[in-house]
């Protein structure tokens, strides 16, 4: 597996960018451009709460771990789970430093409220694949915690969903190999994109530079 | 386009800058003079050997607020640059093209096309607005000659030839430049360009304006991930921000020259604002530098519509817009680099 060194791993969090807009993903992950807007700052603030890797809570049957680094050889992705919950259950797996058996659930913190698109879902499913691989277990259920409604929502992580994650990850790696930034495909989603000022979505509808120059000279 | 924020110009050489929370604090001999929230700032420009705390530099670098140190006369000393904006791919493309003379020429010629086009607009506008004040025949001649140069340059793929055409065009433009000075002609005149040091009032102002523009350009290029020091038209020379000078070509006339002309023609600067040294070098006084900088700051806030992007933005963002367009061209989004063509 010459190609499977961790060097070639991409960021798991990129999945949601990639699904939101391939160009946005490329600008962030290939071109390393980033611009803060209100939403990204809110997101960061929210994650400060979850980003505490040394807090480990035991609440009765439940073990709650924050900011857990995960990776998947299969997806060649790595990232951090906001929260992973281990619930004591006979059908679960053993953990190296806690007695008993546990079922594993990733919990992802989101600003705002539940959304229609499945970009978030894909990210959670990818976390599940990582956890399955690392702990040799099955992860069928995950949760979103939505900050605006302060509530968690359960989602089932089906095989079908995980397969689509595998496809997307493969696609992402292909773009990355070529270091290719796809051309703009504009949509209503451009309005909520934090990278508008770098992406210049308007370029899509612009006339060619050649005709811009020739046109200006002709006037 | 993003919003243009303010530039803080520190003109007193004995002011030390430090960080306090999200503010920059100007200290003079233990005393705090001012404090300004950094989130309002685009850049900080210090004249003289002003010090700044490493804390402030780090904070600014993280937030892409450029800090530039210039000598009292505006000569460049240093710039604080944070971690290069990732994008190795973009920079490698830039280096590859820079090593290839023919490909360099294809981009370089658009800088020159922009420069000549804009200089021609300045001339045409002047002839139209002041037909009784300027020698219209001369202006028309210059305008025509620039247009024919542009046509030649559009086809030119040789850097040396390109520089030849540019030199040629500079002669036509410079010939009418003096005529565009409509006021205070005894004290403000343009014979030819002199630098290091500038030998007359007009050259002193031009040099200062070019310095400010070059700094904005370099900062803009670094922001979008380009290397300001590797150029296409200007070849590498240690310590020279060649790419900044390249992209600046198209803005010299329409941004800096026009600005200097309006300061003279509106009598915002007068003969008293300059000091002549024994060797003929002309310096701007401290007071006049402040006048100049505040007028420059106003100019940057003025709005116009970007001719290619067709978007309203302030003049101060033009360097950023051009840097971004250059980066987008290098990444394959555009068929050519679109110069800023001002009408």
Automatic annotation (TrEMBL), chain A:
Keyword Iron listed: yes
Residues of the DUF83 domain: 14-200
Annotated signal sequence range: none
Keyword set, alphabetical order: Antiviral defense, Exonuclease, Hydrolase, Iron, Iron-sulfur, Manganese, Metal-binding, Nuclease
Cofactor note: Mg(2+) or Mn(2+) required for ssDNA cleavage activity.
Gene3D superfamilies: 3.90.320.10
Class of enzymatic activity (EC top level): hydrolase
Entry EC number(s): 3.1.12.1
Gene Ontology biological process terms from the UniProt entry: defense response to virus
Molecular function, one GO term: exonuclease activity
Family: Belongs to the CRISPR-associated exonuclease Cas4 family.
Protein name, per record: CRISPR-associated exonuclease Cas4
Organism encoding this protein: Aureibacillus halotolerans
Automatic annotation (TrEMBL), chain B:
Keywords: Antiviral defense, DNA-binding, Endonuclease, Hydrolase, Magnesium, Manganese, Metal-binding, Nuclease
Family matches, as InterPro entries: Cas1, CRISPR-assoc_Cas1, CRISPR-assoc_Cas1_C, CRISPR-assoc_Cas1_DVULG, CRISPR-assoc_Cas1_N
Binding site for Mn(2+): 166, 234, 249
GO molecular function: DNA binding; DNA endonuclease activity; hydrolase activity; metal ion binding
UniProt entry tagged with the keyword Amino-acid biosynthesis: no
EC number(s) recorded for this UniProt protein: 3.1.-.-
Gene3D superfamilies reported for this sequence: CRISPR-associated endonuclease Cas1, C-terminal domain, CRISPR-associated endonuclease Cas1, N-terminal domain
GO biological process per UniProt: defense response to virus; maintenance of CRISPR repeat elements
The organism's place on the tree of life at top rank: Bacteria
Transmembrane segments: none
Cofactor(s) it depends on: Mg(2+); Mn(2+)
The protein's enzyme class: hydrolase
Subunit structure: Homodimer, forms a heterotetramer with a Cas2 homodimer.
Similarity comment: family membership: Belongs to the CRISPR-associated endonuclease Cas1 family.
Purpose: CRISPR (clustered regularly interspaced short palindromic repeat), is an adaptive immune system that provides protection against mobile genetic elements (viruses, transposable elements and conjugative plasmids). CRISPR clusters contain spacers, sequences complementary to antecedent mobile elements, and target invading nucleic acids. CRISPR clusters are transcribed and processed into CRISPR RNA (crRNA). Acts as a dsDNA endonuclease. Involved in the integration of spacer DNA into the CRISPR cassette.
HAMAP family, per the entry: Cas1
Name of the featured protein: CRISPR-associated endonuclease Cas1
Biological classification of the source: Bacteria, Bacillati, Bacillota, Bacilli, Bacillales
Gene assigned in the entry: cas1
């Amino acid at each position: 597996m010459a190609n499977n060194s961790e060097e070639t791993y991409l960021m798991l969090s990129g999945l949601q960018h990639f699904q939101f807009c391939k160009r946005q993903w490329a600008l962030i992950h290939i071109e390393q451009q980033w611009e803060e807007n209100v939403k990204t700052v809110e997101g960061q603030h929210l994650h400060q709460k979850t980003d505490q890797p040394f807090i480990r809570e035991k609440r009765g049957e439940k073990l709650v771990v924050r900011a857990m680094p995960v990776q998947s050889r299969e997806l060649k992705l790595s990232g951090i789970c906001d929260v992973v919950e281990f619930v004591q259950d006979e059908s679960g797996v053993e953990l190296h430093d806690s007695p008993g058996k546990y079922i594993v659930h990733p919990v992802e913190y989101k600003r705002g409220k539940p959304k229609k698109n499945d970009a978030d879902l894909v990210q959670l499913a990818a976390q599940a694949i990582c956890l399955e691989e690392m702990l040799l277990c099955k992860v069928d259920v995950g949760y979103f915690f939505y900050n605006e409604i302060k509530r968690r929502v359960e989602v089932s992580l089906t095989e079908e969903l995980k397969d689509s994650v595998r496809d997307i990850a493969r696609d992402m790696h292909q773009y990355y190999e070529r270091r290719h930034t796809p051309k703009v495909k504009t949509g209503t989603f451009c309005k909520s994109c934090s990278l508008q000022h770098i992406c210049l979505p308007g370029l899509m509808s612009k006339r060619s530079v050649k005709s811009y120059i020739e046109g200006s000279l002709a006037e | 386009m993003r919003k243009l924020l303010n530039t803080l110009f520190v003109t007193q050489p004995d002011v030390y800058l430090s960080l306090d929370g999200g503010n920059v604090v100007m200290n003079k001999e233990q005393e705090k003079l001012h404090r300004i929230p950094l989130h309002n700032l685009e850049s900080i420009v210090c004249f003289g050997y002003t010090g700044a705390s490493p804390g402030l530099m780090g904070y600014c670098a993280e937030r892409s607020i450029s800090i530039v140190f210039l000598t009292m006369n505006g000569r460049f000393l240093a710039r604080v640059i944070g971690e290069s904006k990732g994008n190795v791919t973009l920079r490698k493309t830039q280096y590859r093209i820079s090593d290839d003379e023919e490909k360099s020429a294809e981009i370089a010629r658009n800088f020159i096309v922009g420069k000549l086009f804009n200089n021609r607009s300045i001339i045409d506008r002047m002839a139209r607005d002041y037909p009784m004040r300027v020698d219209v025949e001369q202006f028309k001649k210059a305008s025509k000659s620039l247009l024919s140069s542009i046509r030649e340059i559009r086809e030119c793929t040789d850097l040396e030839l390109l520089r030849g055409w540019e030199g040629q065009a500079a002669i036509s433009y410079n010939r009418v430049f003096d005529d565009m000075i409509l006021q205070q002609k005894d004290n403000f005149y343009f014979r030819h360009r002199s630098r290091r040091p500038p030998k007359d009032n007009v050259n002193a102002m031009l040099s200062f304006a070019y310095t400010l523009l070059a700094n904005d350009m370099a900062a803009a290029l670094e922001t979008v991930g380009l290397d300001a020091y590797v150029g296409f038209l200007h070849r590498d020379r240690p310590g020279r921000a060649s790419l900044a000078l390249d992209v600046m070509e198209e803005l010299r006339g329409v941004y800096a020259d026009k600005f200097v002309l309006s300061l003279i023609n509106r009598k915002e600067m007068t003969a008293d604002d300059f000091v002549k040294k024994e060797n003929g070098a002309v310096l701007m006084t401290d007071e006049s530098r402040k006048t100049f900088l505040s007028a420059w700051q106003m100019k940057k806030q003025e709005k116009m519509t970007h001719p290619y992007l067709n978007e309203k933005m302030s003049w101060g963002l033009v360097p950023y817009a051009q840097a971004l367009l250059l980066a987008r061209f290098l990444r394959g989004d555009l068929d050519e680099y679109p110069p800023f063509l001002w009408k």
